[in-house]
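All the exercises in this workshop are built on plain-text protein records. Sequence and backbone structure share a record, each on its own labelled line. The structure tokens are whole numbers drawn from a learned vocabulary of backbone shapes. The record below serves as our worked example for the rest of this section.
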Amino acid sequence: MPGFESIDALVARMEEQLKPLERDGDPRQYFHGTYLRTTKAVGAEVAVGGFRDNPWVERWDLAFAQLYLDALEAPRPPRPWAVAFDAAPDLPPLRHVLLGMNAHINYDLPQALLAVIDDAEFDDAALLERREADHRHIDLVLADRVEGETRERIAAGAHLSLLDRVLLPWNKLGTKRFLAESRHKVWSNTTVLAQARRAGPSDYRARLEELEGLVAHRVTELTRPGQVILQLAVQGFGVQLKSTR
């Protein structure tokens, strides 16, 4: 699939993709719809200059989304996405959203960061600090979107158990916590992959395959019954590659 020139073009494509998912009752619609709304929110934040380096954030966001859209249209998607896409359709919509978020953040995000930070930039401490600051700012958009998805379901009359409703404030706190934890691990994993990239293609492929396996295992864990936010609080949202240094 060719790359996109702007977030607006990406949004238009995602809107077209959402229609058949909704028409067919495909549970992938839940993550896709959430991601579409999050992409719009990121685009709005870029438009008002909310990041330290807005053009870079747009390039990063496009590279990030491309990995998901490639997986969505692939006959054999990467293992984390295969697990998320094949999850039981009767799981709650929020669970499908979180499965997709886990696959996308933990597996795709380090690759997207590498696509927009070259080896020379990894040696520039001041520039990396700016990149990390923008990386942290994205968490606020994601946390607000996950909370919004649950509240929109309530407003639309969707059934939530009494426990689900009691846990809503904790879900917001839990979402912020696991995003912060995941962000730290994503940045660490990006650094490990960057080191492997310097070492050569075979080293990079080996570490990426290791990450793919770790994330697929974590997504599988999150398909099990129970309160998913509480599971995340115990298990953690992210995964971490061991550094060879």
Remarks:
- The two ends are 36 Å apart (CA to CA).
- The chain has one domain: 7-235.
- The mean pLDDT is 84.
